[in-house]
Amino acid sequence: GRGEFAHYMLKEMYEQPEIVLKEGSRHLDIPEELTHALHITLIGCGSAFYAAWGGKYYLEHLAHRKATLELASEFHYRNPIVQEGVTIAVSQSGETADTLKAIQYMEQKGQYTIGMVNVPYSSIARQVNYEILTNAGPEIGVASTKAFTAQLLCLLKISISLMKDSARKEKILNGLKQLPLDMQKIFFKVSQLQDIAQHLVHAKGIIFLGRGISYPVALEGALKMSELSYIFGQGFAAGELKHGPLALIDATTPVIVLAPMDQFFEKTVSNIYEVCAREGKVFIVTDEAGASQLAGVPVQDIFVYPSPATWELHPFLSALSLQLIAYYTALHKGCSIDQPRNLAKSVTVE
Ligand code: M6R
Question: Could you confirm whether the keyword Repeat appears in this record (predicted)?
Fold first, then answer.
């Protein structure tokens, strides 16, 4: 059951530090086919797709592998040209029909397939050549939270085990040890996230911005907001603002900006100014190092989480912050949190 928690989703969000603690240090076996793969295709739907997107950044930056991202619901209809390589299909339920179809397509084309699933013995687990369990435990809330985090962690661990730079590896692994505690600290500041949510309740739409790996996290935050609170949420790469979305900015559309202290920080800050100059109401989610550079920026609020050891760990902290903002926005609106309207936990039809 959900015990003392008002919703399964709340319980599942609170389980995340423990999952990172347990899974972060657990040895992960990977098949030889993956160790030698020069090209990895990542496939998924919804939140699993966004986790896979994060995995693409990890595989490119850490493991120096060519990583291609594919949306399962589009992929197999396209008659895509497939060359040698390994497919990693990411799915919490292991039952998503689109993802299963994409795996079957890849197998027909001769790819070695890996299923990264949370549910053992699921259809995807049985279909693939190799199964990697994300071990988040059963996820009941329709909105994926802890499964997303566990997927991202698994993809990070794969990338770490494929990487050559041992000093960098050490740094990330040490950072991972500190991460559960840093995630806990977000819960200590949950009242600030509740306040932010209170400001969002009456919005017609909310824009989420991020750069680099914060881009898929922004997309995930927008999906979470849409499915839970029924407020239209849209994520954009912050660098795309002036290519169109800037036209949306006015005093009525809140903008949530992920602005971690990473290589994109300065650029993201200039995007924040672009939005503020158009009377946009900005809410920043950043780490301590980022916040220290943001004094005087004319925004509505800044939510600050502890600075992680390396950029690879920001998504675990920023995604959790966005999950909580979506949760409290939905709560203020009185939405059906564990069972949002029109949605099912596993989507077994195409
Ligand atoms: O079970 P799966 O991971 O394959 O599910 C994929 C999506 O249907 C799922 O992530 C969906 O987008 C969630 N409702 C997101 O919260």
Answer: yes
